[in-house]
Amino acid sequence: MRRSVRARALKQRGQLFGDFKGRAVGIGPQTGFFFPAGEGYQGYLNVRGYWDLATENRSTGSSVFVTLAFSPAAPEHPTPRRPMHVKTPWLGTG
Question: Is the pLDDT of residue 41 over 90?
């Protein structure tokens, strides 16, 4: 499980729709975890939320984002490699 506190800053420019410019600064928690999702697959669920602390030209409020992703599972045990032999330095006198 992964937990953290995140911050965001958003600045919108009005290039496409005229002079609709806005800014927002927010902070909030985030948590995510991996889970088994069938034969050979794993899932990841992430939930994060932000509360707006400062806004300009946009509404004040809060946002919640949920991410759900599936991917092939990592191998259980990696294939063992041959042991690596390290040569010791020669300590001769001449």
Answer: yes
Helix (H) or strand (E) holding 23: strand 22-36
- The domain of 28 spans 2-72
Buried b (16+ CB within 10 A) or exposed e, 70-81: eeeeeeeeeeee
**Residue 6 belongs to some domain of the structure:** yes
For range 24-41, the mean pLDDT: 89
Is residue 85 in some structural domain? no
pLDDT band at 38 (very low <50, low <70, confident <90, very high): confident
Quote the CA–CA distance of 70 and 24 in Å, as a whole number. 31
Q: Is 44 inside a domain boundary?
A: yes
Is residue 87 domain-resident? Answer: no
- Angle made by CA atoms 25, 6, 20, in degrees to the nearest 5: 25
- Residue 46: the pLDDT is 94
Cα 49 to chain centroid, rounded: 14
